[in-house]
Design brief:
Elements (H helix, E strand, L loop, with lengths): L9 E2 L5 E2 L2 E2 H9 L1 H9 L2 E3 L2 E2 H19 L3 H11 L5 E2 L7 H17 L4 E2 L5 E2 L5 E12 L2 E11 L3 E6 L19 H10 L3 E8 L6 E8 L2 H19 L22 H4 L3 H7 E3 L7 H4 L5
Parallel strand pairs: 3-10, 5-6, 11-12
Antiparallel strand pairs: 1-2, 4-14, 7-8, 9-10, 10-11, 12-13
Length: 296
């Protein structure tokens, strides 16, 4: 299919015509239509970037450079994190300050290097990203109503497995009752749908101060889960194309999403707070801004 003839999904704040659909777009629409509109179309974002997000980007850079080019992951992480020392990042008590996170990242990269890149998974087998491609744009061109579905894979072995590199503040549960639950992750299932791979997993760099370590969880995805995510993505696509930017409002636990949403000042007409906490995104000349995936 000629992607240039794909339907226009929307035109962004940067006058960029978006014609490809992603899990990230679907996730925003499912979370809150108004959030999707304010963020993706009007271009609002936080003034302060989360330190944990940038930390994850630096960890991923270290992993990529190590597996692809044999570059020391400790130095690679350190160089990337040093660039962010004076950035306007938002830290919290759990993550600590720049120096604490610098030590944490070096610790995790030291573990990766010491293990020669082989991580023991739940199956007690050693797993490695050797031979994978990284940050690869995968496309299902004939997906839905003339629109291609796109997935940016953190790590991908063609036709076999999609891996999402995470930097979570806790380990993923290994209790028996949660065995195989990784297969339910909608982002990984989207990767399986687009790529044709039927194994998915997380390589989780656990950023706890007391016991930082690397966790590998890999499972098979069944066909019913692929059908399920395909239908869910199509539902969100139809909402986007129908301009159903309804607020999915909630202020009381457990549906309290508005209380920690960055767009709350706009939705409550608090102009003073909006000026203090939000800014317009800078225009980009590339499409990566519009294909970005949520990570934490």
């Amino acid at each position: 299919m000629d992607e240039s003839k794909a339907p226009l999904l929307y035109t962004s704040w940067a006058s960029f015509e978006v014609t490809e659909f992603t899990y990230s777009q679907a996730n925003d629409m499912a979370k809150c239509g108004m959030y999707s509109k304010l963020s993706r179309i009007e271009g609002w974002t936080d003034i302060h970037e989360r330190a944990t997000m940038q930390f994850g980007n630096c960890i991923e850079a270290g992993v990529r450079n190590y597996y692809m080019n044999g570059i020391d992951p400790i130095q690679s992480f350190a160089d990337e994190w040093a660039r962010r020392k004076k950035w306007n990042l938002e830290y919290n008590k759990k993550s600590g300050d720049w120096s604490e996170m610098d030590g944490l990242g070096r610790n995790l990269m030291t573990q990766l290097l010491a293990s020669d890149g082989k991580i023991t998974g739940d199956d007690m087998q050693e797993h490695s990203l050797q031979g994978f491609t990284f940050n690869e744009k995968l496309t299902k061109p004939d997906w839905y109503k003339g629109t291609p579905l796109v997935y940016i894979a953190d790590a991908y072995k063609p036709g076999e497995i999609v891996i999402d590199i995470k930097c979570l503040g806790a380990k993923l549960s290994d209790e028996d009752k949660f065995k195989g639950f990784v297969a339910l992750d909608p982002q990984l299932r989207t990767g399986a749908l687009v790529s044709g791979a039927r194994r998915v997993g997380f390589m989780n760099f656990i950023r706890t101060k007391t016991n930082p370590r690397i966790q590998w969880k890999e499972v098979a995805v069944t066909e019913d889960l692929i059908v399920d995510i395909d239908l869910w993505l199509k539902d969100q696509y139809d909402k986007l194309m129908g301009r159903k930017f309804h607020r999915n409002a909630g202020i009381r636990f457990p549906s309290s999403q508005c209380t920690f949403c960055s767009m709350l000042p706009i939705c409550t007409n608090n102009e003073t707070l909006a000026k203090e906490t939000l800014r317009r995104k800078e225009a980009r000349d590339t499409e990566t801004e519009f294909l970005s995936l949520d990570d934490d």
